[in-house]
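Workshop exercise sheet. Pairs work together: one partner reads the sequence aloud, the other fills in the structure field after running the prediction. Swap roles for the next sheet.
Pair: D.N. / O.F.
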Amino acid sequence: MASNNLGPQNLQLLLSILLPRGCRLSVVSDTTYRINCPDYEIAHIVWENRVNCVYPLLGEGEVLEVVASDYYARSYPKPS
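Structure field:
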């Protein structure tokens, strides 16, 4: 099976299309991506939709964080 590792630049491009307005992706480390959202409600929606929208784009062992001023959620590393 082919690797699903897109790399940070390609992932940012794809997520810029998928994420709600005001949310942006940043790279925290080699294996951690953070989505910053403008408020709790939007962050919670992004977190609830992560399995179908974001996880397929992550590589093995990569982690997703969703953050707003009053919201923080962090995934477990994506399994193989």
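Discussion prompt: The chain has a mean pLDDT of 89. What would you look at next?
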